[in-house]
Amino acid sequence: MEANKVTKFDLHRHYVEVRRRMNANAVTVTELLHAVEQPKEEEAKPVPIRVNAHRIHIPSPSVREIVFIVGRMMNVSPWDIISKRRNAAVINARHMAIYCTKEVTNFSYPKIGKAFGGLDHTTCMHACKRMAEMVSTMPEIRAIAEAAIAEFNDDSV
Asked: For a Cys staple, 58 with which of 48, 64, 92, 98, CB 3.0–4.6 Å?
């Protein structure tokens, strides 16, 4: 009966062996960065929009179109725009899409928040305020916003 008893030493030895196996196959972040060639600024390719766009669940067709237009213009996937990701490029694209939605529709902030995956209405208010400031001070942001709104209006006519 004593032969089947597992001791702390046996558990520790097993743990060490498992960790050794895991670390033997591990690749560090720096190794990955050196292994993958980073594209240069001028070589950056636009994010392709998938054909099965109907699989993104955005209740309003107008919001869906705006998300796709802004995603294409800002080189961000529409899936990222409606996701919970919080890196700078995705947040800027999401805020731009919210701003454009508010400009071209008569939706309330709670309705816009719901269309963007259940965001709080104050988040939408902040996004609109932030983008309005950026549009007034940064010409490149103004150009993106005007082009997105114009393309949406051309598509919807």
From this structure: 64
Same structural domain for residues 14 and 67?
A: no
User: Does residue 86 share a domain with residue 12?
Assistant: no
Q: Which domain holds residue 12?
A: 2-41
The reported pLDDT for the residue numbered 154 is 83
Give the global pTM: 0.62
Report the chain's mean pLDDT, rounded to a whole number.
78
Beta-carbon contacts of 101 under 8 Å, excluding residues fewer than 6 positions away, are 62, 63, 66, 107, 112, 115
Low-confidence ranges of the chain (pLDDT < 70): 1-4, 15, 18-60, 156-157
Same domain for 75 and 150?
A: yes
Residue 99: which of 84, 114, 109, 88 has the closest Cα?
A: 109
Query: DSSP secondary structure string, 3-23?
Result: GGPPPHHHHHHHHHHHHHHHH
d(CA 78, CA 80): 5
Spatial neighbors of 37 by CB under 8 A, at least 6 apart, are none
Instruction: Give the span between the Cα atoms of 63 and 152, in whole angstroms.
Output: 10
